[in-house]
Amino acid sequence: MAAGQTLHMPPQIAYPLRVLLAALVLLLVSRPVVTLRPAKPLASVALGLVVFAAWVTPDMLFGYRHHWLFTNSLMPAAAPLPAELRHSFAFLAVRAGGSALLVPVVEELFWRAWLMRWLIHPKFEAVPLGSFVASAFWITAVLFALEHNQYWEVGLVAGIAYNWWMVRTKSLADCILAHGVTNAALAAYVIAEGAWQYW
């Protein structure tokens, strides 16, 4: 991401390149720790859809996103997707695929598989997946929220939901599936409704 900004790459080049590089790193490094066999697939899909609904419902019902609590110098609104890319099937396919298939794996590895355990003990591999310590749970949820800038409040809801699901299922695959369903539903909504502010 930093290289793309420094080199002023256009998004139609920068985003697919990021997806490709991240996918290669995952394939080379993460295969031993990533299993894609969820223990509770139907419940994980349902949770993903609930988080999607929580993500878009506040804007649909109340439209408060321009309040200073959500758009300010610390949490600026994301730059809108350029108009020409909104009609590019290839770009939208890569963007939706990256969002639904790659981002959930990367983020769940970082937030739930690593950070939540590392906050319990620096030798995180000795901490079983889904171990609950309140401070680790809430710090991870808050940091996950802040990553989402002006969508921090729904990011917090999502972070709490995914953290809870990790504690409940002890399964990285279930969290990846839930997160992937949320992102896939959001991508479909963005494209179908032209709700580009979410991208």
Walkthrough of the structure:
The protein is mainly α and 199 residues long. The protein has one domain. Helices cover 65% and strands 0% of the residues. Helix 3 packs parallel to helix 7 (172-193), helix 4 packs antiparallel against helix 5 (134-147) and helix 5 packs antiparallel against helix 6 (152-169). It is globular.
Q: What gross morphology would you assign? A: globular
- What is the β-strand count? 0
Helical content stands at 55-70%
Count, helices: 7
Tally of distinct domains: 1
**Secondary structural class:** mainly alpha
Radius of gyration: 17 Å
The average pLDDT is 92
- Contiguous low-pLDDT stretches (5 residues minimum) are none
Strand content: under 5%
N-to-C order of helices and strands: HHHHHHH
Task: Report how far apart the termini are.
Answer: 15 Å
Major sheet size, sense and barrel closure:
none
Key features of this structure:
single chain; 199 residues; mainly alpha; 7 helices
